[in-house]
């Protein structure tokens, strides 16, 4: 995806993660267009194991480009129920389709209320403009 | 570092125009990538890429004492370079540590051009100035005289000949040519493991020449690809593999040290060669997942540290993590199994032989 893009149906964490709710207590996490653009071509994603407990604002995985490694921060708390295994063979999906095929983990949320504290697309874009 | 203090090459505006990602490097604002490191890396391996390396320094050494002086400060045997020839050398300190690694080009009987690393250019100038006092020789900083463009890849020579209508030197030779109707030096050298040249051209014509080559299909490449390319063929980088605290023998550069010339540091280098060194620089690849980074510990049996990674990356042509490391000499053999401690995760790795990537012929 060549152009900056922040879908309105997602919520955002200021450490450049997105959340897509799936019902009341489940969600999908990924990194934003800005995050993947800053990092460059992703060549390695190390997912957490299924069952790992994630704590909001804490790192839970690493993404690496040729030059750099970056922590991925949990935008909400929960337990990992599924990881995107396809990324081990084609981590570039994180660059090509950060909100679709480049999703990172599915999570059973332990504090669904945290969703309210996340940024809307327009709030997140304002943050990037600063 | 204050961004305002960074220097810009004659091609800076061109990089901005192309949307390059610019980063501070050795006091310069340099393109790390334009489109993507993997793409640029691949362009050099399969076609032709060009790098703005104008940040590199040039020092002219001229006078009747030039050969004698360079025999003192360069580790290789300078008398073996014919006019029009090129040679790789270390500049060693008195302890045999590597002050810089350079290419020396012989432009005439008593005239040489030394190409330095950007980060060491000022140090080299002071060093060469200091040791030249007893010789009938002039040492001049001529870095501002040139823009430097490395054009590398299997098709690099063909594109250059066709586009610029110039004669190219053989490998490890230098030819004076006219580029953009201005005097230029074309050097048959590079830092990628591919065929190609490095061109020292007039800064005034750098942008038009760059544009012309781009139109001819040469892919602009940043320092990111330059680093992955050089690492795959195990060329050392000063500041990572080479430092004033490490001698050329442990860096596996004994081949460019001719102690018989009596260069500065040669007794220490001779001793290291005769007695062996505690550690040796070796390439390695990660077996499985993980990307090594410089500073990662190298672990031997039972997790005991036996070395340290000096450069690590994802190697695009190998499609895995790879790097170079100083490893305890008894373990520094191709095939030896070690682990790399990548931020707490122990990644299985194997010591390899040079180069990690061999050019397709």
Could you explain the architecture of this structure?
- The complex is a heterodimer of chains A (130) and B (361).
- With 130 residues, chain A is an alpha+beta fold.
- Chain A has one domain: Beta Barrel (OB fold (Dihydrolipoamide Acetyltransferase, E2P)), CATH 2.40.50.100.
- Helices cover 18% and strands 34% of the residues of chain A.
- In chain A, the strands form 2 sheets. A 6-stranded antiparallel sheet of chain A has the order 1-2-3-9-8-5.
- Chain A is globular and about 35 Å long.
- The relative contact order of chain A is 0.26.
- With 361 residues, chain B is of the alpha+beta class.
- In chain B, 20% of the residues lie in helices and 33% in strands.
- Chain B has 8 helices and 19 strands.
- In chain B, strand 11 and strand 12 form a beta hairpin.
- Chains A and B meet through strand 4 and strand 6 of A and helix 7 of B.
CATH class of the largest domain in chain B: Alpha Beta
Catalogue the unreliable spans of chain A.
Answer: none
Radius of gyration based on Cα positions of chain A: 13 Å
Chain-averaged pLDDT of chain A: 95
Instruction: Tell the overall outline of chain B.
Output: globular
Order of helices and strands of chain B: HEEHEEHEEEHEEHEEEHEHHEEEEEE
Number of helices of chain A: 4
